[in-house]
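Progress note, sequence design subtask.
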């Protein structure tokens, strides 16, 4: 901002908003409330380069055939947490988050 300028953001004109009550609400951002789980473990998806959608990993021996691992994220709680900025997103997204070299050890923590 230029020197001397002030912001006058309101709930109506803001481009981004975060509900601080939800952010600090105990248990609001739990793993099973955001990431698809099987029991108490996250469900992992494998991604190959250029693929927009992942394949659910059911056999750990298949991990080596992927370029990245990730999760299916339920957006309901996240959209409620940041209501202004994420309105246009769907209710679920599947994202590649880790290269296999990092994702496989994480997978094995949950599925030894």
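Output:
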């Amino acid at each position: 901002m230029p020197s001397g300028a002030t912001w006058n953001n309101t709930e109506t004109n803001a481009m981004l908003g975060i509900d601080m009550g939800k952010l600090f609400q105990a248990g609001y951002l739990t793993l099973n409330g955001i990431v698809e789980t099987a029991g108490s473990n996250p469900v992992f998806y494998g991604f190959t380069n250029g693929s927009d959608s992942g394949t659910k990993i059911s056999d750990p021996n298949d991990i080596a055939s992927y370029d990245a691992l990730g999760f299916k994220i339920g957006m309901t709680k996240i959209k409620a947490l940041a209501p202004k900025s994420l309105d246009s997103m769907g209710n679920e997204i599947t994202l590649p988050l880790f290269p296999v070299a990092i994702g496989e050890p994480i997978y094995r923590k949950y599925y030894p």
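The mean pLDDT is 88. Work on this subtask will continue into the next period as scheduled.
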